[in-house]
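tl;dr need the bound structure. longer version: we got a ligand (PRP) that a collaborator sent over and nobodys looked at where it sits. i said id run it. heres the input, straight from their email, havent touched it
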Amino acid sequence: MTNFRQDFIRFAVAQKVLCFGDFITKAGRNSPYFFNAGLFSDGTSVGELARFYAQAALASKVQFDVLFGPAYKGIVLASATAVALANAGHNVPFVFNRKEAKDHGEGGVLVGAPLKGRVMIIDDVISAGTSVRESVNMIRAAGAEPAGVLIALDRMERGLGELSAVQEVEQQFGIPVIPIASLQDLLTFLADQEGMTENLAKVQNYRAQYGIQQG
Ligand SMILES: O=P(O)(O)OC[C@H]1O[C@H](OP(=O)(O)OP(=O)(O)O)[C@H](O)[C@@H]1O
Ligand SMILES: O=C(O)c1cc(=O)[nH]c(=O)[nH]1
C-alpha cells in the first residue's frame, strides 16, 4: 500500500470525518464506522482532502480531460481537486451540474468547462451507485466519455448481490473506480493503533458479515 492511503485514513480520523460508533448506512446496515465527507468544511481540510484526491487520480494513471462533480458535494470536490491538480502541475478543467435546471440567464444544468473528452467523475462515496449512473447519463448525453470515478473511501461491502456497489459500477460502465483509501486500509490503520482494539474487532466483524469476497 502506498503511504498516502494510510495518511488519508489518519487525516480523516483526526478530522473526525471517519468516526467509530453505531451508524446506519443507506442500505440499512448497522455499521461500526462511518465516513461523513460533509465534515470537511474549512479551507485547510478541504485543501488537504483535495490533495489526497489529486494524488489518487495521478497514482491511478487513468487519463482524463475534465473533472465532473455531481451536485452537491461533488461541486466542492471537483473545484478543490482541480486547484490541487493545478498546484501539482496538471491544469484540468472542471464542470458540475445543478440538481434543478436554471430557466433564466445562461440556463441549463451544467456549470463550468465544456463536458467533452474523457471525463473523471469525482464524488465522496458510492452507496447504491445512483449518483454515478446519473453522471454517466449526463456525460454520454453531452457526447463525452466517462473515464473513471474518484471516491474517498471504498467500503468494500456487498450490494444486493455478491459484488460491491463499486464493483457493479466498474462492471456496468466498464470504467475504474479509484478510491483514495479502502476498508482494507482502514483495517491496517486500526491494527497499528493503540487503543483501537475494540474498533478493529467491530470493523472486522462487520466485514465478515457484509464484506465482498476477497481475492
Ligand atoms: O451511490 P449513491 O446511492 O448515489 O449514493 C452516493 C451519493 O449520495 C450522496 O449524495 P446525495 O445524492 O445525497 O447528494 P448531496 O451531494 O447533495 O448530499 C453522496 O455524496 C453521493 O453522491
Ligand atoms: O453507506 C452509506 O450510506 C454511507 C457510508 C459512509 O461511510 N458514508 C456515507 O456518506 N454513506
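gonna send this back to them w/ a short note. Residues 70-73, 123-131 surround PRP (ligand 1) (CB under 6 Å).
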